[in-house]
Specification:
With 241 residues, the chain is mainly α. The protein has eight helices and no strands.
Length: 241
Protein backbone atom coordinates (compact mmCIF):
# COMPACT_ATOMS: atom_id res chain seq x y z
CA UNK A 1 0.00 0.00 0.00
CA UNK A 2 2.87 2.38 0.86
CA UNK A 3 4.47 1.89 -2.53
CA UNK A 4 1.24 2.53 -4.40
CA UNK A 5 1.04 5.81 -2.48
CA UNK A 6 4.66 6.70 -3.36
CA UNK A 7 4.13 5.81 -7.03
CA UNK A 8 0.99 7.95 -7.09
CA UNK A 9 2.81 10.90 -5.49
CA UNK A 10 5.72 10.66 -7.94
CA UNK A 11 3.35 10.55 -10.91
CA UNK A 12 1.42 13.49 -9.44
CA UNK A 13 4.63 15.49 -8.80
CA UNK A 14 5.94 14.90 -12.32
CA UNK A 15 2.60 15.77 -13.87
CA UNK A 16 2.24 18.92 -11.80
CA UNK A 17 5.74 19.99 -12.82
CA UNK A 18 4.84 19.61 -16.46
CA UNK A 19 1.54 21.43 -16.07
CA UNK A 20 3.24 24.24 -14.16
CA UNK A 21 5.76 24.55 -16.97
CA UNK A 22 2.87 25.01 -19.39
CA UNK A 23 0.77 27.39 -17.26
CA UNK A 24 3.06 29.20 -14.80
CA UNK A 25 6.51 29.18 -16.33
CA UNK A 26 7.73 32.36 -14.63
CA UNK A 27 6.61 31.34 -11.13
CA UNK A 28 8.77 28.23 -10.72
CA UNK A 29 12.13 29.58 -9.58
CA UNK A 30 11.34 29.64 -5.86
CA UNK A 31 10.07 26.05 -5.92
CA UNK A 32 13.15 24.89 -7.83
CA UNK A 33 15.41 26.79 -5.46
CA UNK A 34 13.81 25.14 -2.44
CA UNK A 35 14.02 21.74 -4.16
CA UNK A 36 17.73 22.22 -4.82
CA UNK A 37 18.36 22.85 -1.13
CA UNK A 38 16.17 19.95 -0.03
CA UNK A 39 17.92 17.45 -2.32
CA UNK A 40 21.32 18.76 -1.21
CA UNK A 41 20.24 18.32 2.41
CA UNK A 42 18.99 14.77 1.85
CA UNK A 43 22.36 13.83 0.33
CA UNK A 44 24.42 15.19 3.22
CA UNK A 45 22.19 14.77 6.28
CA UNK A 46 20.47 11.47 5.51
CA UNK A 47 22.03 9.36 2.76
CA UNK A 48 25.67 10.02 3.66
CA UNK A 49 25.41 9.09 7.38
CA UNK A 50 23.41 5.95 6.50
CA UNK A 51 25.99 4.95 3.91
CA UNK A 52 28.87 5.37 6.37
CA UNK A 53 27.02 3.40 9.03
CA UNK A 54 26.31 0.47 6.68
CA UNK A 55 29.87 0.24 5.33
CA UNK A 56 32.04 1.21 8.31
CA UNK A 57 33.06 -2.40 9.01
CA UNK A 58 33.92 -3.10 5.36
CA UNK A 59 35.93 -0.12 4.12
CA UNK A 60 36.97 3.35 5.24
CA UNK A 61 35.56 6.77 4.47
CA UNK A 62 37.85 7.32 1.48
CA UNK A 63 36.08 4.52 -0.41
CA UNK A 64 32.74 6.09 0.45
CA UNK A 65 34.04 9.35 -1.02
CA UNK A 66 35.09 7.46 -4.16
CA UNK A 67 31.56 6.06 -4.61
CA UNK A 68 30.15 9.57 -4.17
CA UNK A 69 32.45 10.80 -6.94
CA UNK A 70 31.36 7.87 -9.13
CA UNK A 71 27.70 8.73 -8.58
CA UNK A 72 28.32 12.38 -9.42
CA UNK A 73 30.21 11.39 -12.58
CA UNK A 74 27.55 8.92 -13.73
CA UNK A 75 24.81 11.52 -13.59
CA UNK A 76 27.04 14.13 -15.20
CA UNK A 77 27.74 11.80 -18.12
CA UNK A 78 24.06 10.99 -18.54
CA UNK A 79 23.22 14.68 -18.40
CA UNK A 80 25.98 15.83 -20.77
CA UNK A 81 25.76 13.12 -23.44
CA UNK A 82 22.18 11.84 -23.37
CA UNK A 83 20.04 14.71 -22.17
CA UNK A 84 18.84 17.63 -24.19
CA UNK A 85 19.61 21.11 -22.92
CA UNK A 86 17.55 22.07 -19.89
CA UNK A 87 17.63 25.84 -19.91
CA UNK A 88 14.03 26.97 -19.75
CA UNK A 89 14.42 30.04 -21.92
CA UNK A 90 16.80 28.82 -24.58
CA UNK A 91 16.11 26.92 -27.78
CA UNK A 92 18.48 24.06 -28.46
CA UNK A 93 19.81 24.11 -32.01
CA UNK A 94 22.16 21.18 -31.54
CA UNK A 95 20.96 18.25 -33.65
CA UNK A 96 22.80 15.81 -31.40
CA UNK A 97 20.36 16.62 -28.60
CA UNK A 98 17.39 15.13 -30.40
CA UNK A 99 14.12 13.82 -29.01
CA UNK A 100 15.22 10.17 -28.86
CA UNK A 101 18.28 10.94 -26.75
CA UNK A 102 16.24 13.25 -24.57
CA UNK A 103 13.61 10.58 -23.92
CA UNK A 104 16.29 7.97 -23.21
CA UNK A 105 17.82 10.31 -20.67
CA UNK A 106 14.46 10.86 -19.00
CA UNK A 107 13.84 7.13 -18.75
CA UNK A 108 17.31 6.44 -17.31
CA UNK A 109 17.08 9.26 -14.78
CA UNK A 110 13.60 8.25 -13.67
CA UNK A 111 14.59 4.58 -13.44
CA UNK A 112 17.49 5.55 -11.16
CA UNK A 113 15.13 7.63 -9.06
CA UNK A 114 12.79 4.68 -8.55
CA UNK A 115 15.69 2.33 -7.88
CA UNK A 116 16.97 4.71 -5.21
CA UNK A 117 13.59 4.71 -3.48
CA UNK A 118 13.46 0.91 -3.45
CA UNK A 119 17.00 0.67 -2.06
CA UNK A 120 16.26 3.26 0.63
CA UNK A 121 13.16 1.39 1.86
CA UNK A 122 15.22 -1.78 2.10
CA UNK A 123 17.37 0.00 4.66
CA UNK A 124 14.52 1.48 6.71
CA UNK A 125 11.12 3.13 6.24
CA UNK A 126 12.51 6.42 7.61
CA UNK A 127 15.30 6.52 5.03
CA UNK A 128 12.85 5.43 2.35
CA UNK A 129 10.44 8.28 3.01
CA UNK A 130 13.20 10.91 3.08
CA UNK A 131 14.60 9.68 -0.23
CA UNK A 132 11.11 9.39 -1.73
CA UNK A 133 10.41 13.01 -0.74
CA UNK A 134 13.61 14.17 -2.44
CA UNK A 135 12.71 12.18 -5.56
CA UNK A 136 9.26 13.75 -5.62
CA UNK A 137 10.88 17.19 -5.59
CA UNK A 138 13.20 16.11 -8.39
CA UNK A 139 10.24 14.64 -10.30
CA UNK A 140 8.54 18.04 -10.24
CA UNK A 141 11.62 19.56 -11.86
CA UNK A 142 11.88 16.64 -14.27
CA UNK A 143 8.29 17.22 -15.39
CA UNK A 144 9.17 20.85 -16.09
CA UNK A 145 12.23 19.84 -18.11
CA UNK A 146 10.30 17.23 -20.09
CA UNK A 147 7.73 19.76 -21.26
CA UNK A 148 10.37 22.39 -21.98
CA UNK A 149 12.47 19.91 -23.98
CA UNK A 150 9.57 19.12 -26.31
CA UNK A 151 7.95 22.55 -26.61
CA UNK A 152 11.21 24.46 -27.09
CA UNK A 153 12.14 22.18 -29.98
CA UNK A 154 8.91 22.78 -31.91
CA UNK A 155 6.97 19.94 -30.33
CA UNK A 156 3.27 20.42 -29.67
CA UNK A 157 1.50 20.19 -26.34
CA UNK A 158 0.17 16.70 -27.13
CA UNK A 159 3.71 15.36 -27.62
CA UNK A 160 4.86 17.07 -24.43
CA UNK A 161 2.09 15.40 -22.42
CA UNK A 162 2.90 12.01 -23.96
CA UNK A 163 6.54 12.19 -22.88
CA UNK A 164 5.46 13.59 -19.52
CA UNK A 165 3.45 10.40 -18.93
CA UNK A 166 6.47 8.24 -19.85
CA UNK A 167 8.62 10.22 -17.44
CA UNK A 168 6.04 9.87 -14.64
CA UNK A 169 5.75 6.08 -15.04
CA UNK A 170 9.44 5.22 -15.42
CA UNK A 171 10.31 5.17 -11.66
CA UNK A 172 7.92 2.26 -11.13
CA UNK A 173 10.32 -0.05 -12.99
CA UNK A 174 13.19 1.15 -10.82
CA UNK A 175 11.27 0.49 -7.59
CA UNK A 176 10.27 -3.02 -8.71
CA UNK A 177 13.84 -3.82 -9.79
CA UNK A 178 15.26 -2.79 -6.41
CA UNK A 179 12.81 -5.01 -4.54
CA UNK A 180 13.44 -8.05 -6.74
CA UNK A 181 17.16 -7.96 -6.01
CA UNK A 182 18.78 -9.35 -2.85
CA UNK A 183 21.43 -6.87 -1.81
CA UNK A 184 23.69 -7.21 1.30
CA UNK A 185 23.81 -4.27 3.70
CA UNK A 186 27.32 -3.15 2.75
CA UNK A 187 26.33 -3.12 -0.94
CA UNK A 188 23.27 -1.08 -0.02
CA UNK A 189 25.62 1.35 1.72
CA UNK A 190 27.76 1.60 -1.39
CA UNK A 191 24.72 2.26 -3.55
CA UNK A 192 23.62 4.97 -1.13
CA UNK A 193 27.04 6.61 -1.55
CA UNK A 194 26.50 6.64 -5.30
CA UNK A 195 23.13 8.28 -4.77
CA UNK A 196 24.78 10.93 -2.60
CA UNK A 197 26.79 11.85 -5.69
CA UNK A 198 23.68 11.76 -7.88
CA UNK A 199 21.77 14.05 -5.54
CA UNK A 200 24.69 16.48 -5.21
CA UNK A 201 24.86 16.74 -8.99
CA UNK A 202 21.10 17.26 -9.27
CA UNK A 203 21.20 20.05 -6.72
CA UNK A 204 24.33 21.93 -7.73
CA UNK A 205 24.48 21.39 -11.48
CA UNK A 206 20.82 21.18 -12.44
CA UNK A 207 18.31 22.66 -10.01
CA UNK A 208 20.33 25.60 -8.68
CA UNK A 209 21.35 26.95 -12.13
CA UNK A 210 17.83 26.35 -13.43
CA UNK A 211 16.23 28.19 -10.52
CA UNK A 212 18.58 31.17 -11.03
CA UNK A 213 18.10 31.37 -14.79
CA UNK A 214 16.81 34.90 -15.53
CA UNK A 215 15.40 35.31 -12.03
CA UNK A 216 16.49 37.36 -8.98
CA UNK A 217 19.23 35.35 -7.31
CA UNK A 218 18.55 36.65 -3.80
CA UNK A 219 15.14 35.01 -3.47
CA UNK A 220 16.12 31.72 -5.07
CA UNK A 221 19.23 31.63 -2.84
CA UNK A 222 17.07 32.15 0.24
CA UNK A 223 14.74 29.38 -0.97
CA UNK A 224 17.69 27.02 -1.39
CA UNK A 225 18.98 27.74 2.11
CA UNK A 226 15.49 27.17 3.53
CA UNK A 227 15.36 23.82 1.71
CA UNK A 228 18.67 22.76 3.29
CA UNK A 229 17.54 23.83 6.77
CA UNK A 230 14.19 22.06 6.49
CA UNK A 231 15.84 18.72 5.65
CA UNK A 232 18.43 19.20 8.40
CA UNK A 233 15.71 19.77 10.98
CA UNK A 234 13.67 16.81 9.75
CA UNK A 235 16.62 14.42 9.87
CA UNK A 236 17.99 15.81 13.15
CA UNK A 237 14.75 15.47 15.08
CA UNK A 238 13.91 12.09 13.52
CA UNK A 239 17.21 10.74 14.91
CA UNK A 240 17.18 12.48 18.28
CA UNK A 241 13.55 12.12 19.32
Amino acid sequence: MIFFLIIFLIILSTTLGGLFAIKFKDKLHLILGFGAGAIFGVALFDLLPESIELTKNIYNISITALFIAIGFSIYMLLDRFLSSHKHCDEICNNDYHNDKLGVLSIILHSFLDGFGIGIAFKISPAVGWVVATAIMIHSFSDGINTVNMITKNKGDRKSAIKWLIIDALSPIIGIITAFLLFIPDYILGSILSIFVGLFLYLSTSSLIPESHHRHPKIWTTISTIIGILVIFLITYFSVNI
